[in-house]
Design a protein that fits this description.
By secondary structure, this protein is α/β, with parallel strands linked by helices. The chain is built from 15 helices and twelve strands. The structure holds ligand FNR. The site of ligand FNR has 28 residues, from helix 1, strand 7 and helix 12.
Length: 376
Amino acid sequence: MHSDLGTGDARAARKDEHVDLALSQRGGGAHNEFDDLDFVHQALAGVDAERVDLGVGIAFGAGPQHAAGEWHWETPFYVNGMTGGTARTTRINRELAIAARETGLPMACGSVSVALDDADAARGFAVIREENPDGFVMANLGVGRPASDAPRAVELLGANALQVHVNAVQETAMPEGSRDFSAWITSVEQLAAASPVPVIVKEVGFGLSRGALRRLADIGVTIADVSGRGGTDFLQIENARRVAGEYAMLTGFGQSALACLLDAPHPAPTLLASGGVRTPLDVVKALASGAQAVGVAGTFLAAIGSDGEAGGAERLVALVDDWKLRTRAIYALLGAATRDELLATDLILRGRLREFCADRGVDLGALALRSERPRA
Ligand code: FNR
């Protein structure tokens, strides 16, 4: 990811290593906090799946260089930021971009810093726009980069939005990682001010707390992806790159996406969620907990294949088409014709998710009885 430390070659090697290590974490059907949320089944409240509208609106505020507005996405999930910059990750980006084009999914790339410092690496990102000229594309930069990188990153991809990732836990475990996080909020503010398109601030799998979301709102950031714990684990990935694995002690650090959504302040930036999304049911759980749309990284990377081999896009297209069908079916089962109607489902929490929410003062009783609130 974004740490500026290390030579260009070392950073490129890290990209390939991240892909291998992320894929090696998959499988095993591990529990995560999406399993700690149940919907109350209402046997007679369902709607016709044909009537379900999967579209979502992502509202953003005005910035110094763009007006306020709202994006309309036809599907409530997207390909989250992963990679680019080496021969292998260029192939992966190409297959992801083809699948995004064929399915209409919005797509982010991995951190483009490597391409801003090295023209050869730029192709590995530009390929996303070449394969998908009309799609919704997000560029990605790490916090701490110079503000002048924001317009360069956006230009490289003709991007519609810029993701800025904050990844203090990853940097802490990364052998060559940064140890000074003191200027990050200023850096986010500067990158957002310099960006010609709306900025989405995201975590990378450790969550954005109520306090973090408030600080972002205070500096005018209007979209945030809480990207929580429970999926691709960058603590484990960076720790595996150490000889002695000294940072294993931080295992389990951070909050899950659902914990972040339920703990979010009111008002909050427009919330996107990611981290540990394995199925369409996880997508719907995040939407019902307050996300406007849901990012998927590791699960979609696994569908493409470890080398971005030809045919990877076809497998991802089939998976996404199936997810759309099943997302629609779950909306119908829950009696929701739209994403907003999911906010009237009753949510029951248990396990670690319940403990976290109870300690943070989330009203568990109100969540469990949302369907009985008078409708506005
Ligand atoms: C990532 N992720 C990521 N995020 C980011 O903002 N910039 C980046 O460069 C990367 N790089 C990256 C590489 C690989 C191989 C993976 C799998 C992921 C993090 C990603 O966007 C997401 O926040 C987390 O992976 C959690 O989501 P999943 O993987 O559990 O769906």
